[in-house]
Amino acid sequence: MNESIPRYEVLIVGGGVVGTALLYTLSKYTDIKNIGLIEKYSDFGLVNSASYNNSQTLHFGDIETNYSLDKARSVKQMADMVMRYLESDKENSSGNKLFSKYSKMVLAVGKNQVQELKLRYPSFSELFPHLKMIERDEIEKIEPRVVEGRDPGQEILALVTEDGYTVDYKRLSHSFVDKALSKNPGLDIHLNTKLLKISKNDTYYTVLTDKGEFRSTVVVIAAGGHSLMIAKSLGYGKNLSLLSMAGSFYTAPKVLNGKVYTIQVAKLPFAAIHGDPEVHSDSVTRFGPTAKPIFQLERYNWSTFSEYWKTFGMGLSPIISLSKIIFDKVLFNYIVVNFLYDLPLIGKRLFIKQIRKIVPSLKLDELRYAKGIGGTRPQIVNNTTRKLEMGEAKLSGENIIFNITPSPGASTCLGNAYSDTFKIIEFLGDKYKFDQKAFEKDLM
What is the pTM of this model? Predict the structure, then answer.
C-alpha cells in the first residue's frame, strides 16, 4: 500500500451542519481518533446550512401543523439536542452569535382552521408544556400587526410559545468544527477538496478527489442532494430520484416581533408561508418560502445541472413517477402559483395576498423580493411507489452511510449524528466506544 495516501477509520464527505455535527459527536464522545472530513468549498456550511439558503428555524414540531404527534415527539427530541448545545455555547455569542430567541406562534384564520387548531391543542400541549392557546386580544399584545387592519368578524386563534430559535447554521457548523478540534487536534480537514469518485475495495473505500486520493474504512456522505448521486454510483438507491425544490423569500421592515406560521395546506409536503425575524437583524422580517422545482442540486449553481440529471436517473420510470406527482391537481396548481411568485412585478403583487393572511395591513411598498436568498430542499421520489417520500432520507450499505436529507433539515443534525455514530461503531467491529451516557447527559 502507498504509505503517502491518507488512511482514516472514518471519512466524512460534506462540511455542512450535518457533516460537522457528526465530526463533533465522533470527536467528543468516541475514542476514534483517525477521522477526516472533505468539503468542496472554501468554508463550512456554504450551501444548505447558510442563513441565506434556509428559514433559519429550529423546528420542534409544536407549531408545524403538518406533524403528527408521533412525528413531533421524534423531532422534538432531536431539536432539543441542538437547543441544549446552543444554550451551552452562549459564551460565543459576543463575537460569533449562533442564534436569536423570539416568540413563535401558529396562526389559524377562519372558522375551519380555528376548529382544527382547537382540536390539535390538548395532545400537543402535553408534549409542549410551554405552548399556550391564545385568542385575538392576546395575539394583538404579542403581534400587533397580525390584528391591525383585520376584519373584526374574522375568527383567529393561535398557539404560542417563547421557545422560538432562529439559528445561523453556518456558524453552528463552525462551532462544531472548533469543538471537535479542541477534543481531537489531529483531525484531518480538507477544504476546497471536491469528490470525483468513490470505489469499494476489500477492507476500505478509495475516495478520489481533485486534491488527491484518500482511503477510509468507513465513509459517511453528508452532501445533501449530491449524496443520492454518490449512492447511485455505488449501486445504492437505484429506485430513487430527486425532486429538487427551490425556496425563495420576500423581506419587509420589521412587522413581526417573532415567528408567525400559518396552518399547513393539506396534501402539500412543503412549508406553509410564515414570517421570521432575520437571525442577525431584528429590524427585518423574512416571509416565505415559496417552492418550485428546479433542475439543479444547488440553487444559483448551474454547474450542478448535469449532476441533478445523474441523480434523477435516465429512463422512463423516474419520468412517470415525477409526472404522477407533479400533475396531481393540488400540487400542480401550487407549483404554477409559486413560479409566478418569483416573477418581477407580478410576483410581489400575488405573494402579498398570502402574506396579508399574517399581516393584513402590509403595504406593497414595504415588501421586497430577497434576491439571492433561498436554497434547495431535496425531496425523494420513490420510483416503485411513484410517491414522494417525506421526512428523513438516509441510505446505508457496507461500511457506508448516505445522508441525503435529514428531517426536518438542520434541526435534527445532532440526532442524526447520534444514530450515525452507533452505526459507525458497529461498522468498525466494536473496536471503539461511544460514550452514550455523556452525550445524553449533555444534550438529551
Answer: 0.93
